Amino acid sequence: MTGGSAALPPTPSQTIGPFFGHALPFAGGGDLAPAAHPGAVTVHGRVHDGAGAPVPDAIVELWQNGPEGRPPRAPGSLARRDGDLAQEFTGFGRVATDAEGRWSARTLRPGARAGRAPQVSVCVFARGLLHHLFTRLYFPDDPAALAADPLLASLDPARRATLVATAEPLGPAPRYRFDIHLQGEKETVFLDFRDFRDFRDFR
Amino acid sequence: MTPTQRDIDLEMAAHRAAYERGRASGGPAVDHPPRDYPPYRSSALRHPTRPLVAVAGDPEAVELHGPVFGHTDVSPLDADLTGQHGGEPQGARITVTGRLLDRAGRPVAGQLVEIWQANAAGRYAHRLDRHPAPLDPHFTGAGRALTGPDGSYHFTTVQPGAYPWRNHDNAWRPAHIHFSVFGTAFTQRLVTQMYFPGDPLLAHDPVLRSVVDDDARRRLVATYDHALSRPEWSLGYRWDIVLDGPRATWAEEGR
């Protein structure tokens, strides 16, 4: 975990607490793509605790590839010019859950490299959660890509299902539901990157 | 029925002692708090009980990069929390400065630092904070800045007050400033809290003491730096932040 000979010890995590609402949410935080974009899709869901109760004081952050399959490099990830189809896709979104634990965002389907299924990287913060949690939201549309994805393939089917959003064929634009269970029978698969080090060969 | 501060203190001491015993018998140092820390009651139903799945071999490229911020995301006014409402807020003016570094000690430049805090009386400008302390019309308590080329950040604000909460009977949070920071990789994401030296409440707070390693916990406490204090203006605190987690190396290789 130290990664190098002169590694500095890291600053510990602390909970986001209950009172981030005047600071972290930003206007258009869930609008990664403008509503008028022909490729816009909605991803949404609820955050639940171990008793199945909604978590009304969570933040869900989304970060993803652009449609062409690479991490966006456009600056201005907090800036939104709604309706401006020429605005570059920054791939970052942040939404707070509402009183019923719901979150929603509008984005573009990410591209993926060969052998990987399209996914959105998700980071969850909440009051009561002392250290954020990472997970992945996979799109369900391409079963062959899902079957080939190494992370999904390493999980048993019930656990794997927690990472795959459900398509909702309602309305004119595609919608995908992705619930996050912090604990319990339907507990979402959360990811740990800290044992990974010196990754240099993905070019 | 409701636990007292003494009950919580004993629980926290037991967790620390168990950790120290583990260390003495060769266990690893643990920098981050366990997500399951019973003295912080709200963690009970909000931590996963299954082990995290290690993405050791092959993270996605997107996870090893992070969102890109720029000058359109912040204004210089965002870093002065005392200048956002046309009048001086109540309380002692302070500056908080430090550097954002990765674990190799390299500065993390151009990344977003966001802070939020209670006002001098211990009240958040948040509709759900019902603590009967005064709101301050001249203080919202939220700020943003981008780190400079040397990883440095600077905020001007007021010393936040301690405030009560309902974790246990007569529970009080020590004065703190919440920090949210991004690294060059999404895996380096960090949300944490900065505390103030000498605060007697530090010994009694289950959020801070969820960091069971003494050295790691000390890293959450800022240093008072007299050289940063400005005559007849403000008191200066220094607090460096070191990001954990892997990052991509291709950006610095010119891609």
The overall pLDDT average of chain B reads 94
Strand element count of chain A: 10
- Provide the structure class of chain A: mainly beta
Q: Tell me the name of the CATH homologous superfamily of chain B.
A: Aromatic compound dioxygenase
Instruction: Estimate the strand proportion of chain A.
Output: 25-35%
Keywords (chain A): Dioxygenase, Oxidoreductase
GO molecular function, one term (chain A): protocatechuate 3,4-dioxygenase activity
Protein name (chain A): Protocatechuate 3,4-dioxygenase subunit alpha
Domain Intradiol ring-cleavage dioxygenases (chain A): 40-184
Outline of the structure:
The complex is a heterodimer of chains A (203) and B (255). The model of chain A is unreliable at 1-5 and 197-203 (pLDDT under 50). Helices cover 7% and strands 26% of the residues of chain A.
How would you describe the overall organization of this protein?
The complex is a heterodimer of chains A (203) and B (255). With 203 residues, chain A is mainly beta. Chain A has one domain (16-199): Aromatic compound dioxygenase (Protocatechuate 3,4-Dioxygenase, subunit A, Sandwich), CATH 2.60.130. Helices cover 7% and strands 26% of the residues of chain A. In chain A, the strands form 2 sheets. In chain A, strands 1, 4, 7, 8 and 9 form a 5-stranded mixed beta sheet that branches. In chain A, strands 3-2-5-6 form a 4-stranded antiparallel beta sheet, with no helix packed on it. In chain A, strand 7 and strand 8 (175-177) form a beta hairpin. Mean pLDDT of chain A is 90; it is low at 1-5 and 197-203. By secondary structure, chain B is mainly β. Chain B has a single domain (5-46, 75-242), classed as Protocatechuate 3,4-Dioxygenase, subunit A (Sandwich). In chain B, a hairpin with a 5-residue loop joins strand 6 (163-165) and strand 7. The longest helix of chain B has 20 residues, at 5-24. Residues 250-255 of chain B have low confidence and may be disordered. The interface between A and B is large, with 85 and 87 residues. Strand 10 (191-192) of chain A pairs parallel with strand 1 (53-54) of chain B, so a sheet runs across the interface.
